[in-house]
Amino acid sequence: MERLRAIGGLVAVVVAILAVKTNEQAEEAAVAQHEANVAQQKLAAVTDRVKELIPEEEAAAIKESGEKVEKELRAPRTRHHKI
Predict the structure, then answer these.
(1) Whole-angstrom distance, CA of residue 47 vs CA of residue 41
(2) How far from each other are the two terminal CA atoms of the chain, in whole angstroms?
(3) In whole angstroms, what is the distance from residue 29 CA to residue 39 CA?
(4) Per residue in 2-60, pLDDT tens?
(5) Residues 19, 22, 26, CA angle at the centre, nearest 5°?
(6) CA 51-52-57 angle, 5° bins
(7) Per-residue pLDDT averaged across 72-80, rounded?
(8) Angle at Cα 21 formed by Cα 25 and Cα 31, nearest 5°?
(9) What is the pLDDT of residue 30?
(10) Helix or strand run (H / E) with residue 77
(11) Is the pTM value of this prediction over 0.85?
(12) Distance separating alpha carbons of residues 15 and 74, to the nearest angstrom
């Protein structure tokens, strides 16, 4: 019976530790999501202002350049380098 109580106590401690870790991870995820939302809002504000200031043709060229860079950054990277 003592063994069962000891095991039960250990299980309770492990469950408590896992609950704390899960809560910490959830908080970190919430903060990251909030920061992403703020960054998205700032980008939208800047984009709106750029649309007001830059002629449409120039804006299209800038957008195209940005999309090209984004595509290059998202491309899988290899570790093979040409010598």
Answers:
(1) 10
(2) 69
(3) 15
(4) 888 888 888 888 899 999 999 999 999 999 999 999 999 999 999 888 888 988 888 88
(5) 135
(6) 50
(7) 77
(8) 20
(9) 94
(10) none
(11) no
(12) 39
